[in-house]
Specification:
Radius of gyration: 14 Å
Structural class: alpha+beta
Number of domains: 1
Strand content: 35-45%
Helix content: 25-40%
Oligomer: single chain
Distance between the termini: 38 Å
CATH architecture: 3-Layer(aba) Sandwich
Number of strands: 5
Order of helices and strands: HEEEHHEE
Largest sheet: 5 strands, mixed
Number of helices: 3
Strand order of the largest sheet: 1-2-3-4-5
Length: about 120
């Protein structure tokens, strides 16, 4: 990973955690489609393909479980932003595939928890 002095440490840490998540999912057999997809509605950390299913992956890192940990930070508000960003992505790229939302939760020790079907798309 290329870094510069001007890059904030939080951004570097986030980029590193997303790369860890991507590598983990690729080892598990998923194919990378896109990273850091941004739109007005939100950001998609990773877009992966699991067979015929498009997977929108939210990567969360928490050094401590003190406030519920990484997985707990994907609250209903965050889920709504992710589903809106995913809908935008699907429409923009004219994609008509089954989709799901997964969460990769990484703790301070670097342990990865993959939560498949973490939540359903909000209406």
């Amino acid at each position: 990973m290329l870094t510069t002095k001007a890059t904030p440490w939080r951004k570097r840490l986030g980029d590193y955690q997303e790369q860890q998540a991507r590598s983990y999912l690729e080892r598990e057999g998923l194919d990378h489609v896109a990273s850091n997809v941004r739109c007005k509605r939100g950001e998609l950390d990773l877009v992966m393909r699991d067979g015929e299913t498009l997977v929108f992956v939210e990567v969360r890192f928490r050094a401590s479980a003190r406030f519920g940990g990484a997985a707990a930070s994907v609250d209903p508000r965050k889920q709504a932003r992710l589903t809106a960003a995913a809908a935008y992505y699907l429409q923009r790229h004219s994609i008509n595939l089954p989709c799901r939302f997964d969460v990769i939760a990484i703790d301070g020790a670097g342990a990865i928890q993959w939560i498949r079907h973490a939540f359903a798309a909000s209406s």
